[in-house]
Amino acid sequence: MHSRPRRLALIALFTLVGAATAALPAGAAEDAASTAREHYQKGTTYYDLGKYTDAIKEFEAAYEIKNDPALLFNLAQSHRLAGNAEQALHFYRTYLRRVPKAPNRAEIEGRISALEQQLAQKSGQSGGATTPPPAGGTTTTPPPAGGTTTTPTTTTTPPPGTTGPVTPVSPPPEVPPPSGPPGPTGTAGTLTTSPPPPAPPAATANHAHMLKLVGTISAAAGGVLVLIGAVEGSRAAGAANEINSAAKAGKSFDPAVESRGLSAQRAERGFLIAGFLLAAAGGGLYLYGRHAEPHAPTVTVAAVATAHEAGALLRVTF
Fold first, then answer.
1. Which contacts of 213-218 are long-range, i.e. CB under 8 A and separated by 24 or more positions?
2. 254-298 per-position pLDDT tens digit
3. 74, 45 contact by CB (below 8 A)
4. How many CA atoms lie within 13 A of 213 on its CB side?
5. Across the chain, where does the E strand assignment appear?
């Protein structure tokens, strides 16, 4: 009877140590989320100030810690407004690959199409550049090769300072404004659309589930030990009543009854202590599991307007 309560007490102690050890990964995950949140908030501040290069660095740092697809959209917006068309295309496409059913997909596809046209026009202008004719001079087109003589064509270019027909240069395609009404100049207005949050990592979810499961089992086992302790207490009380009844009846004292009562009393004490400890450890494990469960971030689309540009960011609440 002495060894059983000791074993139960050791089991409860090991369970408490395991609960404290399990809390360490949860604390590390919380620190990582806090660091990602700081980088995201700095990036949002730089974006609002029009410092898009600095915003890109902060959003990249946040994504390296917590690869939330919303940060890909913010990186695309920052690169587009910074004039990095190729990088903006990359991040817009990556975002749609990660979130194929994004509610703002039509808007993003419009931006992708506009950026592709912009890059194609830029490539065409750089590849087809020719040396302009001298100002105020005469350009003569030579006759084609062959045996036929053709009168050459002469084109007169007006000198500088004179009025003449000028071929207009096609402006770059307009980037469609963000969906939803933008707020006042320099402010952000929150829209109602929200892309679906990313699925939580499977490893974290399994870890939290195991903590909750072990905690529930430990608490149930502690309840069983408390119940056994109550049964042993009733046995001890029965032995005491039996001794008292024998004394009143004038019967001789029975040492076996006393030994049985003392043994039941010690067992009661051991089971109750072990049961309460195990139940407390199980409750602690369950709470740690609840705390370690991954929580999906809240994401909203926020329109931002400045004096020269209009855009939008995905606001992430970690």
1. 213/289, 214/18, 214/282, 214/285, 214/289, 215/19, 215/281, 215/282, 215/283, 215/284, 215/285, 215/286, 215/287, 215/288, 215/289, 216/282, 216/286, 217/282, 218/15, 218/278, 218/279, 218/281, 218/282, 218/285
2. 788 778 888 888 998 899 999 889 889 988 888 887 777 665 566
3. no
4. 6
5. 138-141, 153-156, 188-190, 298-305, 310-317
Quick one: three-class SS letters along 280-300? HHHHHHHHHHHHHCCCCCEEE
Dist CA 1 CA 266 (whole Å)? 8
Question: Cα separation of 318 and 316, whole Å?
Answer: 6
Q: Model confidence over 213-258: pLDDT tens digits?
A: 888 998 899 899 998 989 989 888 988 888 888 787 777 777 887 7
Q: Are 56 and 75 in contact (CB under 8 A)?
A: yes
φ/ψ of 112, rounded to 5, equals: -60, -45
Record the tokens describing residue 52, joined without a space.
Answer: 């898009």
Structural tokens at position 207:
């870890």
Give the span between the Cα atoms of 184 and 200, in whole angstroms.
36
Tokens representing residue 303 in the block: 């329109």
Bridge partners of 277, per DSSP, are none
- Rounded CA separation 76/268 (Å): 67
Alpha-carbon span 271 to 224, nearest angstrom: 9
